[in-house]
Amino acid sequence: MDNTSWLLSNLFKITFFETLHAKSSNSNPCSPKKSTGRRGGGDASSLSDCPCNAPKCSTNTVCDRGKTGAGVTGSRSENRETEKSSNYLAAGAINPGLLRHLHNAARYRLPQCFEGACVSVKQSSASNWIFGHSLSFSSVSPGGYKVLLSYLDKDKPTDLPYFVMEAAPGGQLSCEFRVGPTQATRATVVAQIANGKFDSFESIVDAYFNSFTASVIAVNREFIAIHYLQAITERLSLGAEVVGRGRAPELTATSAAARWAGEEHSVSATLGSRGLDLCYARVLRPHLTAAAMLEVGFAIRKAVATLAYEWRSDDWTVRASVDSDGLVGATLHRALGGRRAKLACAISALLNHPNDKFRLGFGVTAAIV
């Protein structure tokens, strides 16, 4: 796939509030993702991506720590972008990635199921701006029309600065701006307007060093989270999180984290006052990866276990999962090709056994070159 097609298919954010910690009220089956490997126990395997990679479909906020509340801040985000650490570091450095990406090797295998239908068209201009439209229909979440605007250097699509905005009728607006103040730092600001009123303001600062990373995440005046992850060896990483809440100091929480990763497997865990989050991922074949996850919430006294797998080729990706709550989901993402308009489609199915409910979704994306 040429550079322009890769840029349109993987880096243009079209889902409303599809930022790391932004609030979301709907889902969009026309939002392709990407996952990239990382040295020293990377965020995900470095398998090649299908141009129609997984769409964002679930509601995630900065406070979403999973079904039991056991995860670290940002660990359940469906924004599957990762940073290319090699450009931030000196030659030979061992970088463990960010703490909020600790479990990505396993969580990237989960299908992001959606419901309804969506059609999206994206078109690049002669400059670095990308313009698009999205129309979605759903019986369980708000749909409608959205206009999309993004800025990205086409010659260096993973470089900064980066800007993305999405607006919808009724006064809904989401805007994300990302810059690199220095070679080893990255700053992200997310602002949201809902129903014509200012809804939230979120800021993230990530710093990359030769053998560790640090992050500071602040959301409005609600709380601030500090992350630290240290590479002990090329396979072992240890870290910690501290979360402070200004209006509720008694809810301040701490967590310890660890990850052991090899070429074909990854084991990661976080343990804190909220609970235990344990993940395991293993490459069974060159294009087949299996994962197992366990969440245990101490406060609510609940545990959830999940099994998932991902099968991918150059043109399609299949993900499926089943958990102890009785949810069975699967997604199929397929690149349809095209000369001037790169087409891709996504099909989703979700079965809720306890409630005896079934949801089906279908989406089409056209990236006009």
From TrEMBL:
One Gene Ontology CC term in the entry: mitochondrial outer membrane
UniProt main location, coarse: mitochondrion
InterPro entries with a match to the protein in the record: Porin_dom_sf, Porin_Euk/Tom40, Tom40
Keywords from the named record: Membrane, Mitochondrion, Mitochondrion outer membrane, Protein transport, Receptor, Signal, Transmembrane, Transmembrane beta strand, Transport
Span list, region Disordered: 23-48
Domain of life according to the entry: Eukaryota
UniProt biased composition (Low complexity): 23-34
GO molecular function: protein transmembrane transporter activity
Topology relative to the membrane: Multi-pass membrane protein
Signal peptide: 1-22
Name of a matching Pfam family: Porin_3
GO annotation, biological process: protein import into mitochondrial matrix
Intracellular or extracellular location(s): Mitochondrion outer membrane
Family from the record: Belongs to the Tom40 family.
Protein name per the record: Mitochondrial import receptor subunit TOM40 homolog
Organism: Papilio xuthus
